[in-house]
Amino acid sequence: MFGALHTTLLNIAILHDAVTRGARPALALPERGGAIGAIFATSAQADGSVIMIERRIYRQDELPESLMWQAVSFMRVQWPSIFKGSLRLLKHTYPPDMGTVHFAITEEGVLLSYASVMRMDLPHAGERYVVHGFGNAFTFPPYRGEGLGRQVVDMATGFLRESDADVAGLFCAPGLERFYAASGWEALPGAVTRVGTPERFTAYGELRMMLFLSEKGRQARTAFAGEPLYVPWPW
Ligand SMILES: CC(C)(COP(=O)(O)OP(=O)(O)OC[C@H]1O[C@@H](n2cnc3c(N)ncnc32)[C@H](O)[C@@H]1OP(=O)(O)O)[C@@H](O)C(=O)NCCC(=O)NCCS
Question: Containing domain of residue 70, as a range?
């Protein structure tokens, strides 16, 4: 299933190194008992060679600039409509002041696959919820079909399950529903999403998929499926 990598893991070392002890971003993230860190996995190739893949979770201010630029450059090609108006020269995958967490799979500093989450406090149906937005998920084309997209989504989903979020949400084309559902995301077909406020909004038609994480979030499942959700922008 994972194509050329034939993911025979010969060695996995989980390093809770400087990343866990590093400086915190302005918007402090909750402690996650070692979720921030790196996993190095060596993978045997068909020709007998061994490659070193690194899966790592970074807080906003810890993502190396070279990885940020690789991610933003992918986005410019894949989602050019984002880069309009004041976002023409966008330099971050998500706004830097939203507690963004990055999930990166690299090989020798080359970004293979990536996703990110950011944190919001959103009103919904008369309550306020800690909502984590998931997005910017991609694998560079030469490395698709190797299981990396699944790994990056699983890494982010695991992180969200340990987070302080009530719910998490992503938007995708219907064709990707199975891809995300396999990592535990629940599709809410027909759920209405609006960009803006109840006074002024535009409809957003992409499929919304969610994770209901805290007790409060789980109890709000019906409200998130049935009541229009107002978002600042469709991340
Ligand atoms: C979607 C994407 C991230 C998948 O990356 P990948 O590394 O090739 O994914 P994987 O190899 O881990 O594949 C995992 C599963 O998803 C399926 N899948 C992969 N790409 C898919 C796609 N575009 N549509 C539907 N299913 C897809 C695979 O068939 C595989 O299924 P399986 O587990 O039953 O074998 C990649 O195609 C991509 O970057 N697309 C462009 C950006 C994009 O659309 N991102 C999603 C934004 S919501």
Answer: 3-231
Strand ranges of the sheet holding 201-204, from the earlier edge strand across to the other edge: 201-204, 193-196, 229-231
Contact 131, 169 (CB under 8 A): yes
13 lines ligand 1 (CB under 6 A): no
For residue 144, report the distance from its CA to the centre of ligand 1, in Å.
Answer: 7
Higher pLDDT, 103 or 61: 103
CATH, residue 124? 3.40.630.30
pLDDT of residue 95 exceeding 80, the answer is: yes
| Residue-by-residue DSSP string for 45-95 | -TTS-EEEEEEEEEEGGGS-HHHHHHHHHHHHHH-GGGS-GGGTT--SSS-
CA of 56 relative to ligand 1 center, distance in Å: 20
What's the domain count of the chain?
Answer: 1
Q: What is the mean pLDDT of residues 199-218?
A: 97
- 147-191 confidence digits (pLDDT tens): 999 999 999 999 999 999 999 999 999 999 999 999 999 999 999
Q: If you take atom 4 of ligand 1, which residue's CA is the nearest one?
A: 149
Two structure tokens written together for 181 = 């559902």
Sign of CA dihedral 139, 11, 31, 154: positive
CA of 97 to the centre of ligand 1 (A): 29
